[in-house]
UniProtKB/TrEMBL annotation:
Protein name, entry field: Tetratricopeptide repeat protein
Signal peptide positions (record): 1-19
Keyword annotations: Signal
Protein's organism: Rhodocyclus tenuis
Biased composition (Low complexity): 485-495
Polar residues bias (residue ranges): 461-477
The UniProt record lists the keyword Signal: yes
Region Disordered: start-end pairs: 179-202, 461-495
Superkingdom of source: Bacteria
Basic and acidic residues bias locations: 179-194
Amino acid sequence: MLRKNGLGVLLALSTAVLAGCAGNPMRQYDGELKETVTLVKTGAVRQAVELLEKNNAPGVMTQDKDLLYYFEKGELLKLANDYAESRDSWLKADAIVQQWEEEFRTNPQKLIGDLGSYLISDKTRRYDGQDYEKVMLSSRLTLDHLLLGSFDLARIEMKKTYEREKLIESFRDKEYDKLKEDGDKQKVSSDPKQLKGYPLDDLDTPEVRELKNGFQNAFAHYLAGYFFEVTGEPSLAEPGYRNALQLAPHRQIIQQSLKNVGRKKPGPRESDVLFVVESGFAPSWKSLTIPLPIPRQNGVVLTPLSFPLIKSENSAFVPASISVSGRQLPVETLTNVDTMARRLLKDQMPGIILRTVVRAALKSVAQEQANKANPIAGLAVGIASVVTEQADDRSWRTLPERISVARAILPHGKQTIEFQTGAGVYRGEVLIGNRFTIVPIRLTGGAVYLAQANVAVDGAQSVSADTTTPLPASTATKGKRVKAVPKTAPKAADQ
């Protein structure tokens, strides 16, 4: 029955591929997002949103807007300082992720044993997000809620982050057991060492080995610790800092925050300021073809098979410090998405190998059956088998590669900030006010995006945002200092 169904699926896909239909499962997502990333680099974030909409318009994509659309749109709107619309897009993405979570709770075997990925390609599987993307979505929603002054929603998202981590851990444990069972039945080796020519060393660096897994990120837990501390709940802040330190050992800013939790408080005209420095773009996922011996009716045949490969194309620059009115604040990286992606792929590679090898054997049987029934059908299946032999390249491309932080208690009022961008020196102004201030900064290699939120925390859930338009870093390529004066929104009154 499996082989018969497999032949039917392959024949159907053959028709779609040969017809060249738009919106087919073999969408080249990584190539599609390159232009979007280029626009963000130049500061043209609104044009990037327009391009995203164009690529996902009716008639271009036959299916409904998917998880990646809401991922990318939320990120682009955040860069445009449109936090409300960014939040709304990510909430739609979160609803999709919650659907995946509910399916796992009620029927985990449905998610673990996806027939389509065995018979055709991993790209035909519904995209539920990489593990690190699911957790990162929660942490980015948390930040949006804080910038909008929605503290209760931020608290819910912080709790959800922890719960999501636990659920993903449980899912991967069950998946591993199922894959091991399938591998034993099929007598297929899932050892990555059989992939001659695959750069396995890229998945086994000291940084990758240091990570506990490929989905928990230290920034999410540090942000929770910071929030609870500045809102007067040090007993809740401490666990956040401890979790962050477990995920990112030896980070001085986490150690200091844990040591001083509840002790260092801003004065009457001071603010506890957190600079969130996001750099670069998440790595792209590529498809690498490697020949493996596959048993067929006429013996073992060396068959070209495709496996995912992570490629860093936009190296992230992290400034060593931020100067605030002449005071140097050290910047430390808490989360490296590139390293997380490599750890995730390292952990999932045995399962990917198993699916790919089993798929190749089933395709071979399906083609032999088609040849016997109808030579033309056999040709179609053969072409589809070649065309669809691609590793899944889908991922959240506009996500930053690195998330770093700097923190200090600073006096209220306008403050001049200055930092290196990798293409020169950026110089601007921020307005410090209220009990705590969050200043998000994004360095894309060719542009700097700076925004700010000053939040009154004494019972009020309000926000004032002082923003700059994206400043192309190319204006500072010769080391010239460029002063960017924010356009100030109405300031929320302290309460």
